[in-house]
Design brief:
about 400 residues; alpha/beta; Aspartate Aminotransferase, domain 2; Aspartate Aminotransferase, domain 1; 2 domains; seven-stranded mixed β-sheet; binds pyridoxal-5'-phosphate
């Protein structure tokens, strides 16, 4: 591919850091000091108290919904977007909650705040908002109303590292936030994810949920001692507080994360410059350019057609294939989740049609690569190719 979705996300210096570690006589490879250091450095970067490194963004989603289930064993509703990754919706279902879908705002591609507020009922347990493709999905009104109604906000920031709302980093506003470090994202630990929170109780519980529900993972002696005292007949090393998972990462992931984090802010600046150049050059009569750009941290250009034009969309895909422009149709997660087989029988037939903004992205939205070493001339060439489609 001449213009791939991603190039050079893992650099020589990241690999060298791993090799240095491996050169030791007996290197620790399971999670250890580097994982802990990465968690601390990530928390400092994000501006939250606690972070827990896991093996994927999907695992971060799963553990977050498992926490919500500990708070609400009776179940209830979680408001989620139809334009997101499957794991956001799957984690809701896996933990026995009912997903309540609301359509997106075409400018941010995140759930429309007014529609979120209209969907709140006395059964709403959380709003699980995805910041799509680096755009800020928050508004002050949404934050204020959720606080007033005591509805927890959970932020999925897997696609939006470094994006901000009024100067604060996305992922530092919610009760809990989730990140992914999958290869194609803003930074990569090969596979990886992070659960972040200011809530110390959540932190201790996520530490346990990450490792089989084991109490010895708790790093607050008060909490650990309380479990041990309550279970005197159990070996203190093997007290399982929750029926949980193993979603741990490794020292190699920790080392890569620490190395990558050093470049993250500079990469966000570079990608943002690319995005602005891209938006100033693509033909706004054919493609949408009126996105909510303030605070955005793009990692893939959004190519959304102005019109529902099936002929145009096919000519565009043919042109991109011929020109070596790698693309994904449907933007984040392949488009409208409500069309996916895993939701058949859970939502009514044809329910997806009630979400016209998401439907537009499903058929007429794409993303294409935007990465730090994409050159200005390459952005110009991509735009010329896209603009040539009639
Ligand atoms: C919004 C969102 N949430 C969660 C995930 C899952 O992350 P991972 O691929 O690391 O499991 C993704 C993946 O791309 C995503 O885009």
């Amino acid at each position: 591919m001449k213009f791939p979705l991603m190039r050079n996300n893992i650099m020589r210096e990241d690999l060298d850091a791993v090799i240095e570690h491996l050169k030791q006589d007996d290197p620790i490879l399971t999670h250890g000091a580097n994982v802990r250091a990465f968690e601390e450095e990530w928390s400092a970067w994000l501006g939250v108290k606690h972070s827990v490194f896991v093996n994927s963004g999907a695992s971060a989603n799963l553990l977050t919904m498992a926490i919500l289930k500990i708070r609400h064993p009776e179940g209830g509703e979680v408001i989620v977007p139809p334009l997101t990754w499957i794991s956001d919706v799957a984690s809701v279902l896996q933990n026995g909650f009912t997903p309540v879908f609301v359509d997106i705002d075409p400018k941010s591609l995140a759930m429309d705040p007014a529609k979120i507020l209209a969907a709140i009922t006395d059964k709403t347990r959380a709003v699980f908002l995805t910041h799509v493709q680096g755009f800020d999905g928050l508004t002050d009104e949404l934050l204020a109303e959720l606080e007033r109604k005591h509805i927890p906000l959970i932020e999925d920031v897997c696609e939006s590292h470094g994006a901000t709302h009024r100067g604060g980093k996305l992922g530092s506003f919610g009760w809990i936030s989730n990140f992914s470090f999958y290869y194609a994202h803003h930074m990569s630990t090969i596979e990886g994810g992070m659960v972040c929170t200011n809530d110390s109780e959540v932190y201790q519980q996520v530490r346990m949920l990450r490792s089989h529900g084991m109490v010895r993972e708790v790093n607050d002696p008060v909490v650990r001692t309380a479990y041990q005292r309550a279970n005197p007949e159990l070996n203190p090393d093997f007290i399982f507080a929750f029926p949980a998972y193993n979603t741990r990462n490794t020292e190699i992931g920790g080392i890569m994360g620490r190395s990558q984090l050093k470049r993250l802010d500079a990469n966000v600046v570079r990608r943002t410059e690319n995005l602005h150049r891209f938006l100033s050059r693509i033909d706004s009569s054919k493609y949408r350019t009126d996105f909510k750009l303030e605070g955005s941290s793009n990692y893939a250009f959004n190519l959304v057609l102005q019109k529902n034009d099936d002929g145009f969309v096919h000519r565009l895909m043919t042109k991109m294939r011929e020109s070596g422009i790698e693309f994904r149709r449907g933007s984040a997660g392949g488009g409208n989740q409500l069309r996916q087989p895993y939701l058949k029988g859970i939502v009514p037939a044809d329910y997806h049609l009630q979400f016209p903004e998401t439907e537009h992205i499903h058929f007429y939205g794409f993303y294409i690569g935007n990465f730090p070493d994409l050159k200005d001339e390459e952005v110009d060439e991509i735009c010329a190719i896209l603009n040539s489609v009639e």
